[in-house]
C-alpha cells in the first residue's frame, strides 16, 4: 500500500435496523435471469427477516427508456411470485417509486456537494469534450484532466455565477479525491478497497436536471431507508463512488450493508451470460417473452418456453447459493427459511440449460395434476387441442408428467389421448405384422368393456396371447402403436383405460386396416 494514501474504512454497522431491501431495475428492455435472481435474493432476505421488499424503477436515463419495460418487469416478478411490498403501482410510505417522479429531490444534493467542495459544475460542451478526447489519449474526466477543462474549479467565481445565471447548460461532477483508498465491507466479498486515482469524476446531475444513476441510487437508498443493497457484481466498481457520496452527503452512519452477488456466467464459464449467448446457444435468458417495441423483435422467455415459475425460482436460487447440503429442490417457503447470505458463493455461477430443464422436470414430477392443470390446459389450447373435462385431463397429466421436461411437452406426450393418431410408426410394426396377429387383435378388441382396470386388461391380453400362441411381448408394441401412433408413452393398458373401451376398440380396428 502506498504510504501517502489516506485510508477510509467504512464498515456498515449491522444494527437493529429494520430490513428494507430494493430491486432497482432500469426499464430498458427484457428482464435477464440475472436480474430476476437479484430480485429473488432481495425478496428472500426481506421475507426471512420480516423486512420490506421494494421495487424501485430507475428511469433517469431517458435515452435508454423503453416503453412497456416497467409493466413487463412487474409482470415477470408477479409470475415468479416475488411480490413487492412497495412499488410504483402499489405505492407506499417512501414513494414515489419511479425515479423520474423524484426529479425535484436530487438537485439539492448536487448543490450541497458543490458547496462542500466534493463536486463541481462542468460547462464543457460536447464539442469541447470531443476535442479533448482527440487531444488526450484515453481521456477520462478526472484528476488528471479536470484542471484543463471548463468547470467551476478552473473558472473564476464571477464567471461561474454568470454562466449559471444565464442558464448555460452544465452538469455537476463528483470531485474524486486524490490518493485515497475507499474501503468497505461487502457481506460476500469481505473487505474491498478501491484506489481513487483510478476513478473518474462521474456526472451526478445531467444538463437536463436529471440525476445520473450514481446520485439517484444513493439519494433514494437513503430516502427509502434501504438497509442492505443486494445487486449484481457488475455494480461493484460503482460502489466506491456510492460510498464516497454517502460520506460526502453526511450520511456515512446510515450507509446500507453491501452485498454484491456473483455473476451468472456463460455455460463454458467464460464471462458473463448475455442475451446474445442465449440466442447463439438456443436457450432463453429472459424471464418472459419480450418484444422490442421499436424493432418488433421477439425474444423468448422461460415462461413461454414451458417453465414452471417454481422451477425457474428454484434454479435461480441455486445459481450462487446452496444450503450447505446436497439438496437441490426448494419451494419458495423453504428458500425463505433456509436462505443465508453466508452461503452465497463468491465465484460466478455457470448457467447450464440442461440443468435448468432438469429442475423443471423435477418440479413437473413433484407437482400434483391439479397444480399442473392450468399450465397444461394453456399448452393444449395453444396447440388447438380440445381436452374435454378437467378430471379426464388431470388423469392424463398423472400418466405422462414423468415424461415431460417442459410444459409444452404435455402436448407432444399427450395429444393422442384426445385425438386418434392420424398416422402410425409403420416401421415399428409392419415387418413383423401377420394375419395371425390381426386375428389376435380382433379377438382382443371383442373382449373390451368399460370399467375394466389396467390390470384386468393386461391379464386378458396375456391369456388371449397364450391361446393364440404368442408371447405377450410380441404384441405389446403393435398395441401401443395402435393407440398412440408411435413407440412412446406410459403403460399401454393405462392408456387403454384412459381412452375407454369404445375408443380403444375403434383405434384397434382402424390400425389393423392400416397395418394389413
Ligand atoms: N438501476 C440499476 C440496474 O439497472 C440498479 C443497480 C443497483 O442495484 O444499484 O440494475
From TrEMBL:
One biological process term in Gene Ontology: glutamyl-tRNA aminoacylation
GO cellular component: cytosol
The EC number(s) this enzyme carries: 6.1.1.17
Protein keywords: Aminoacyl-tRNA synthetase, ATP-binding, Cytoplasm, Ligase, Nucleotide-binding, Protein biosynthesis
Reactions that this protein is recorded to catalyse: tRNA(Glu) + L-glutamate + ATP = L-glutamyl-tRNA(Glu) + AMP + diphosphate
Any one Pfam family match given in the protein's UniProt record, by short name: Anticodon_2
Domain Glutamyl/glutaminyl-tRNA synthetase class Ib catalytic, first and last residues per copy: 18-358
Signal peptide as annotated in the record: none
Extent of motif 'HIGH' region: 25-35
Any GO molecular function: zinc ion binding
CDD domains hit by this protein: GluRS_core
Subcellular location: Cytoplasm
Residue numbers covered by motif 'KMSKS' region: 272-276
Residue stretches making up the Aminoacyl-tRNA synthetase class I anticodon-binding domain: 370-512
Binding site for ATP: 275
Record function comment: Catalyzes the attachment of glutamate to tRNA(Glu) in a two-step reaction: glutamate is first activated by ATP to form Glu-AMP and then transferred to the acceptor end of tRNA(Glu).
Protein family: Belongs to the class-I aminoacyl-tRNA synthetase family. Glutamate--tRNA ligase type 1 subfamily.
Quaternary data: Monomer.
HAMAP family: Glu_tRNA_synth_type1
Name listed for the protein in its UniProt record: Glutamate--tRNA ligase
Lineage: Bacteria, Pseudomonadati, Bacteroidota, Sphingobacteriia, Sphingobacteriales
Amino acid at each position: 500500500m502506498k504510504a501517502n494514501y489516506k485510508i477510509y474504512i467504512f464498515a456498515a454497522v449491522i444494527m437493529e435496523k429494520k430490513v428494507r431491501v430494493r430491486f432497482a431495475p432500469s426499464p430498458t428492455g427484457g428482464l435477464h435471469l440475472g436480474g430476476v435472481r437479484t430480485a429473488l435474493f432481495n425478496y428472500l432476505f426481506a421475507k426471512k427477516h420480516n423486512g420490506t421488499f421494494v421495487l424501485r424503477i430507475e428511469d433517469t436515463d431517458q435515452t435508454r427508456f423503453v416503453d412497456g419495460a416497467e409493466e413487463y418487469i412487474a409482470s415477470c416478478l408477479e409470475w415468479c411470485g416475488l411480490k413487492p411490498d412497495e412499488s410504483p403501482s402499489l405505492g407506499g410510505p417512501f414513494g414515489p417509486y419511479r425515479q423520474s417522479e423524484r426529479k425535484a429531490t436530487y438537485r439539492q444534493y448536487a448543490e450541497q456537494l458543490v458547496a462542500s467542495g466534493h463536486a463541481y459544475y462542468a460547462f464543457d460542451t460536447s464539442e469541447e469534450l470531443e476535442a479533448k478526447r482527440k487531444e488526450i489519449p484515453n481521456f477520462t474526466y478526472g484528476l488528471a484532466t479536470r484542471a484543463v477543462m471548463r468547470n467551476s474549479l478552473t473558472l473564476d467565481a464571477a464567471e461561474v455565477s454568470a454562466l449559471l445565471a444565464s442558464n448555460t447548460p452544465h452538469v455537476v461532477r463528483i470531485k474524486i479525491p486524490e490518493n485515497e483508498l475507499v474501503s468497505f465491507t461487502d457481506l460476500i466479498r469481505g473487505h474491498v478497497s478501491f484506489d481513487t486515482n483510478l476513478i473518474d469524476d462521474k456526472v451526478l446531475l445531467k444538463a437536463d436536471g436529471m440525476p445520473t444513476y450514481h446520485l439517484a441510487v444513493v439519494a433514494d437508498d437513503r430516502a427509502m431507508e434501504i438497509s442492505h443493497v443486494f445487486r449484481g457484481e457488475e455494480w461493484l466498481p460503482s460502489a466506491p463512488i456510492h460510498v464516497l457520496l454517502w460520506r460526502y452527503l453526511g450520511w456515512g452512519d446510515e450507509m446500507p450493508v453491501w452485498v454484491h452477488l456473483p455473476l451468472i456466467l456463460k455455460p463454458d464459464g467464460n464471462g458473463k451470460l448475455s442475451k446474445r449467448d442465449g440466442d447463439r446457444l438456443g436457450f432463453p435468458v429472459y424471464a418472459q417473452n419480450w418484444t422490442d417495441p421499436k424493432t418488433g423483435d421477439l425474444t423468448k422467455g422461460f415462461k413461454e418456453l414451458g417453465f414452471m415459475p417454481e422451477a425457474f425460482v428454484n434454479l435461480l436460487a441455486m445459481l450462487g447459493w446452496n444450503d450447505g447440503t446436497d439438496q437441490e429442490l426448494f419451494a419458495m417457503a423453504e428458500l425463505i427459511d433456509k436462505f443465508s447470505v453466508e452461503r452465497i458463493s463468491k465465484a460466478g455461477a455457470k448457467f447450464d440449460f440442461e440443468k435448468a430443464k432438469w429442475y423443471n422436470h423435477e418440479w413437473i414430477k413433484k407437482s400434483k395434476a391439479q397444480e399442473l392443470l392450468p399450465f397444461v390446459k394453456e399448452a393444449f389450447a395453444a396447440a388447438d387441442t380440445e381436452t374435454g373435462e378437467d378430471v379426464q385431463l388431470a388423469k392424463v397429466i398423472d400418466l405422462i408428467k414423468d415424461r415431460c421436461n417442459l410444459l409444452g411437452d404435455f402436448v407432444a406426450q399427450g395429444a393422442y389421448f384426445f385425438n386418434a393418431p392420424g398416422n402410425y410408426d409403420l416401421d415399428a410394426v409392419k415387418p413383423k405384422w401377420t394375419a395371425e396377429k390381426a386375428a389376435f387383435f380382433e379377438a382382443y378388441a371383442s373382449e373390451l368393456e368399460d370399467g375394466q382396470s389396467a390390470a384386468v386388461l393386461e391379464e386378458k391380453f396375456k391369456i388371449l396371447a397364450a391361446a393364440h400362441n404368442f408371447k405377450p411381448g410380441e404384441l405389446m408394441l403393435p398395441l401401443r402403436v395402435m393407440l398412440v401412433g408411435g413407440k412412446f408413452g406410459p403403460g399401454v393398458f393405462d392408456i387403454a383405460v384412459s381412452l375407454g373401451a369404445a375408443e380403444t376398440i375403434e383405434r384397434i380396428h382402424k390400425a389393423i386396416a392400416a397395418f394389413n
